C-alpha cells in the first residue's frame, strides 16, 4: 500500500503548519468500495547446512538471491552504489531488513485470494533460488542460531544513522533490526472516526494477536524464555516510538492526537539530494519550528518520519497492524484474513471490541507483556488468551462468510483462516509447539528446527 498521495512538488514544498501534518492522515480516507488489504511478509534466511544466518555479501548471500530473482523472474533491481538492496515489480516490491531478512510488500488486494496467488508465486521464486544456493527461508519470527554480531548489516546508509542511535535508547534495538521477522496487515479507513475506531481495536487486540501467532521461542541456538521474543524485543528498542499508545483508547482520540505524539518522537534523519542527513534525537516538532542543519521541514520529511515510528499499530494514510511474528506460508495469510473479516464488517468490528473494551490501561499493559512470554496461556480477568483468540477467529470467519468473496474453487476467504483454526484447536501457539519439540524429539537440534520450519515448494 502506498503513501504517495501527493505530487512530488507538494511533498518537497516547505511545511510550517502543524495542521498540514494532521491533514496528511485525512488524505488517506477512501470510500468502502476502494478498501483493500495489503500484506508485508518478512522471512529470515539461513545456510541450510549450518543453520547460520545467510550473509548479504558473497556468491551464496542475500544479494545473490536478489540478483537471481531479477535475472529469472523479471524483477527490476534497485541499487545502493553497486549493490542490489531491493527489487521492484509491477505491483509489489522485495526489500531487505537490516540483517538480510527478505520482505515482500505485496499488492493492495481486494481479496485474500489475490494475496494467496501473489504469495504462492513469491514462495516459489525464493525457494527455487534458495535451493540452488543452499539457503533456506524459515517460517519463524527470529533468526534461530546466529548471534547478533555474526549477522552482516545490509549496506543501506540509513542504518548507519539508526544503529548507533538505537544503542543510546534501548538494549535490544539491534536485535530488532537484524534478527526479527514479522507479517503485517495494512487496512484502509473512510473517515477520521473510522480510522481511530480501527486503531483502537487493533491496539486492543494486540496481545491476542501476539499470542495466537507467537513464533519466536528460540534464538542464539537456545530457548529464550519467551514465546514471542520478537515482541519482547520491541519493549526495549526505543520507548519513545514503540509499544501501545494510551491516547488511542480515549473515545475522542483523533488524527491530531497521533500527530502530536509523532511530533514529539525524536527523528532519525531526513533525505536531501539522495543522501540521508543525520538529525537523530531531534523531535520533529523542533524541526518543524526551527529547522536544522540548514534544512526546513517538508511533507516528505513528515512522511519519512512516520515510517520510523514503531507502535503496535501505525497510522499513515492507512493503518498497519504490526503485532505478529512471521509465519510459515500455510499460516501467513491467516492474519490478513482475520483482519479483513473483523475490520471490514461493522458488526464484527463491534463484536471484536466487546472482547477487549473493558480492560483498564494497566490491564492492557500487563497482558501485553505477558502475551510475549506466555502466549495463549496468559490470562486476563481469569480468561485465557486462547479462549479470546478462538472467539476472535470465529468473529472473523463470520465477517468473511458475509463478505462472500469466492475463488475459482468456490471457497470464500474464510478458507485462509483454516491454518489458524487448526493451531487454536490444538490449544497452543506455533511457539509452544516448537518449544516442546525442541526440548523433546528434536533434542535441541537446529537441523531439525530448520527441517520443520523451512519454506518448501508446494
Please identify the structural class as seen in this structure. Answer: alpha+beta
Query: How much strand?
Result: 5-15%
Shape: globular
Give the averaged pLDDT, no decimals.
97
State the end-to-end distance. Answer: 27 Å
The figure for the number of domains is 1
CATH topology heading = Creatine Kinase, Chain A, domain 2
Helix content: 40-55%
Number of strands: 17
The gyration radius over C-alpha positions equals: 21 Å
Q: What is the count of DSSP helices, taking H or I runs of 4+ residues?
A: 19
Largest sheet: 9 strands, antiparallel
CATH class: Alpha Beta
What does this structure look like?
By secondary structure, the protein is of the alpha+beta class. The protein has a single domain, classed as Creatine Kinase, Chain A, domain 2. It contains 19 helices and 17 strands. The strands form five sheets. Strands 1, 2, 3, 4, 5, 6, 7, 14 and 15 form a nine-stranded antiparallel beta sheet that branches. A hairpin with a 2-residue loop joins strand 16 and strand 17. Helix 16 packs antiparallel against helix 17. The radius of gyration is 21 Å and the shape is globular. The mean pLDDT is 97.
Amino acid at each position: 500500500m502506498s503513501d504517495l498521495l501527493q505530487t512530488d512538488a507538494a511533498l518537497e514544498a516547505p511545511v510550517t503548519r502543524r495542521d498540514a501534518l494532521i491533514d496528511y492522515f485525512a488524505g488517506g480516507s477512501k470510500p468502502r468500495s476502494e478498501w483493500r488489504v495489503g500484506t508485508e511478509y518478512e522471512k529470515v534466511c539461513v545456510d541450510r547446512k549450518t543453520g547460520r544466518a545467510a550473509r548479504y555479501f558473497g556468491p551464496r548471500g542475500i544479494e545473490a538471491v536478489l540478483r537471481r530473482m531479477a535475472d529469472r523472474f523479471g524483477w527490476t533491481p534497485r541499487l545502493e552504489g553497486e549493490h542490489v538492496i531491493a527489487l521492484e515489480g509491477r505491483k509489489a516490491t522485495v526489500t531487505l531488513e537490516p540483517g538480510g531478512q527478505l520482505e515482500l510488500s505485496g499488492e493492495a488486494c481486494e481479496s485474500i485470494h489475490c494475496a494467496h496467488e501473489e504469495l504462492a508465486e513469491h514462495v516459489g521464486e525464493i525457494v527455487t533460488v534458495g535451493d540452488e544456493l543452499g539457503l533456506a527461508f524459515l517460517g519463524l519470527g527470529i533468526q534461530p542460531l546466529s548471534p547478533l554480531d555474526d549477522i552482516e548489516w545490509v549496506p543501506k546508509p540509513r542504518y548507519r544513522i539508526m544503529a548507533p542511535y538505537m544503542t543510546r535508547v534501548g538494549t535490544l534495538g539491534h536485535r530488532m533490526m537484524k534478527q526479527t521477522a514479522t507479517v503485517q496487515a495494512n487496512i484502509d479507513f473512510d473517515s477520521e472516526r473510522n480510522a481511530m475506531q480501527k486503531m483502537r481495536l487493533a491496539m486492543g487486540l494486540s496481545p491476542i494477536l501476539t499470542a495466537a501467532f507467537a513464533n519466536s521461542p528460540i534464538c542464539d541456538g537456545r530457548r529464550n524464555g519467551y514465546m514471542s521474543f520478537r515482541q519482547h524485543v520491541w519493549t526495549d528498542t526505543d520507548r519513545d516510538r514503540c509499544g501501545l499508545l494510551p491516547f488511542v483508547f480515549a473515545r475522542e482520540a483523533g488524527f491530531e492526537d497521533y500527530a502530536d505524539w509523532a511530533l514529539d518522537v525524536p527523528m532519525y534523519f531526513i533525505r536531501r539530494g539522495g543522501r540521508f542527513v543525520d538529525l537523530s534525537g531531534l523531535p520533529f516538532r523542533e524541526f518543524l519550528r526551527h529547522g536544522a542543519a540548514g534544512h526546513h521541514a517538508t511533507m516528505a520529511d513528515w512522511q519519512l518520519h512516520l515510517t520510523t515510528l514503531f507502535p503496535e499499530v501505525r497510522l499513515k494514510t492507512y493503518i498497519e497492524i504490526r503485532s505478529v511474528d512471521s509465519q510459515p506460508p500455510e499460516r501467513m495469510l491467516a492474519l490478513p484474513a482475520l483482519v479483513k473479516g473483523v475490520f471490514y464488517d461493522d458488526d464484527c468490528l463491534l463484536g471484536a471490541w466487546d472482547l477487549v473494551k473493558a480492560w483498564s490501561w494497566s490491564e492492557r499493559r500487563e497482558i501485553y507483556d505477558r502475551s510475549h512470554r506466555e502466549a495463549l496461556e496468559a490470562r486476563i480477568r481469569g480468561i485465557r488468551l486462547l479462549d479470546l483468540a478462538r472467539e476472535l477467529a470465529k468473529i472473523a470467519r463470520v465477517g468473511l462468510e458475509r463478505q462472500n468473496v469466492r475463488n475459482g474453487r468456490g471457497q470464500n476467504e474464510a478458507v485462509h483462516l483454516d491454518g489458524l483454526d487448526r493451531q487454536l484447536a490444538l490449544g497452543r501457539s506455533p511457539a509452544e509447539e516448537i518449544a516442546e519439540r525442541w526440548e523433546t524429539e528434536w533434542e535441541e537440534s537446529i537441523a531439525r528446527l530448520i527441517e520443520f520450519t523451512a519454506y518448501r515448494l508446494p
